[in-house]
Write a structure and sequence with these properties.
Dihydrodipicolinate Reductase, domain 2; Alpha-Beta Plaits; single chain; 19 strands; binds NADP nicotinamide-adenine-dinucleotide phosphate; NAD(P)-bd_dom_sf; threonine biosynthesis; elongated; Rossmann fold; ACT_dom; about 25% strand; Homoserine dehydrogenase; alpha/beta; 3 domains; eleven-stranded mixed beta sheet; sodium
């Protein structure tokens, strides 16, 4: 019998307990040992819970789990940076194997945690940390290991994908779709980490760590959320054959790693454009396998519980058969993220200008002076002195585009620059 201590009995913790109970016999057969939940850490012992436990299982003292010599595997599901990080480190020092779904802790502190685990001859598994129920951590470590991964594109945040899908299908503004996502439980009361892109940045940092075997500082990843996307942008994108998605991108290049999270125009006929609602998707390119795409629900009690329990089972099997999967993280290099200003992209630009002769010529001259060439121009005629002007550029360095936008902004016939969105034509 193997004994498990769970830190946290919220959405995911409860899902893990349910799966371990419901599929107990099946899990025992696959693992070769019975798995017993020894203790569960919660914050508030008096909280009303949907699950019932025997006296003494719930505790609010973390030491009863991480310092408990009976416990083989510690499952960290409290979330946040601290005390989760401290508990993981302490548990590893006490010889416990770790399973966690904590993207923040793995993205920020993975290097220290993996090193500590190696020193203590234990494993750290984190399939639930990226894209909930979508299997991607273990495939990158095992099934795709023969490949050099060139690039990864992910839709890694269900909340923002739900909002963008709702805006797109129902012609709604961001605030209305966010309110709807909150009403249906697809967005938290404080949605900042999701809608501003930080959540996706943690996840793409973890994927690039595995794909490229490089550690990067998550704070150096360029992050832009979806709060500025207007229904007008979505409508114009559709007219030009695109759909707007919040993309998490990681590419390996000679200058370093190009890792970023931002909204992007995705061609309507690309498989990523078809990922709707709360679904997540990872689309990657390996030198041997070619393109691989995988999609599943990226969050929620049972999908994330599924990933966490499969990690618990893998670790249990390894303990039971006296083996340990070694990840060779000692070979991983530290790497810089390429400055966003040096990245080349095509861009969508939406401006408002005074409808008078010469405005186009002034703007075109500024673009020309800054090496920005245009792929298309769309001018909507309105019975109004102010008209929208929409451009798609060819590939241009971000810094050259910014230089030209600064000059365009100061033109007296330009009212304002409404939005700038990267166009990903070569996914
Ligand atoms: N929710 C998802 O769909 C999802 C998907 C993928 C990954 N994840 C990750 O999974 C982890 C857990 O998320 P969740 O949504 O299950 O969180 P949650 O619903 O907020 O649950 C957190 C649990 O941890 C307990 N807890 C929090 N801080 C604690 C502390 N300092 N000491 C003791 N107990 C503490 C809480 O106790 P009380 O019950 O007493 O309040 C609660 O049981 C996070 O890392 C999250 O990023 C979640």
């Amino acid at each position: 019998m193997l004994k498990i201590g769970i830190l946290g009995l919220g959405t995911v913790g409860s899902g893990v307990v349910k799966i371990l109970e419901k599929n107990e016999e099946n899990i025992k057969n696959k693992v070769g040992a019975k798995l017993k939940i020894e203790k569960i850490l919660v914050n508030n012992l008096n909280k009303k819970r949907e699950l019932n436990f025997a006296q003494g299982i719930l505790t609010n003292d973390a030491a009863e789990i991480i310092d408990n010599p009976e416990i083989d595997i510690v499952v960290e599901l409290i979330g946040g940076e601290y005390p989760a990080y401290d508990y993981i480190i302490k548990a590893i020092e006490n010889g416990k194997n770790i399973v966690t779904a904590n993207k923040l802790v793995i993205a920020k502190h993975g290097k220290v945690i993996f090193k500590k685990a190696d020193e203590n001859n234990v494993q750290v598994c984190y399939e639930g940390s990226v894209a909930g129920g979508l299997p991607i951590i273990r495939p990158l470590q095992n099934s795709l290991a023969a490949n050099k991964i060139k690039k990864i594109y992910g839709i890694l945040n269900g909340t923002t994908n739900y909002i963008l899908t709702d805006m797109s299908k129902k012609n709604k503004e961001f605030a209305d779709s966010l309110a709807q996502a909150q009403k249906f439980g697809f967005a938290e009361a404080d949605p900042a980490s999701d809608i501003e892109g930080a959540d996706a940045a943690y996840k793409i940092t973890i994927l690039s760590l595995l794909a490229f075997e490089r550690f990067v500082d998550v704070n150096s990843v360029y992050v832009e959320g979806i709060t500025n996307i207007a229904s007008e942008d979505i409508k114009l994108a559709a007219e030009m054959g695109y759909i707007i998605k919040l993309l998490a991108i990681a590419k390996n290049s000679d200058q370093g790693l190009d890792i970023r999270v931002h909204p992007a125009f995705v061609p309507q006929d690309h498989p990523l454009a078809m990922i709707n609602g709360t679904y997540n998707c990872v689309y990657l390119h390996g030198d041997a396998v070619g393109q691989v795409m995988s999609t599943a629900r990226g969050a929620g009690q049972m999908p994330t519980g599924s990933a966490v329990v499969s990690d618990i089972m893998q670790v249990s099997k390894d303990i039971n058969f006296n083996q340990r999967e070694v990840q060779r993280i000692d070979k991983f290099l530290d790497s810089q993220v390429v400055d966003i200003n040096e990245i080349e992209n095509s861009f969508y630009l939406r401006l408002e200008v005074y409808d008078q002769p010469g405005v186009m010529a002034h703007i075109a001259k500024i673009f020309g002076d800054n090496n920005v060439s245009l792929a298309s121009v769309l001018q909507k005629q309105k019975d109004n002195p102010i008209v929208p002007l929409v451009f798609i550029t060819h590939q241009v360095k971000e810094k050259d585009l910014n230089k030209s936008l600064k000059a365009i902004e100061s033109l007296k016939d330009v009212v304002k620059i409404n939005n700038i969105i990267r166009v990903e034509n070569n996914i």
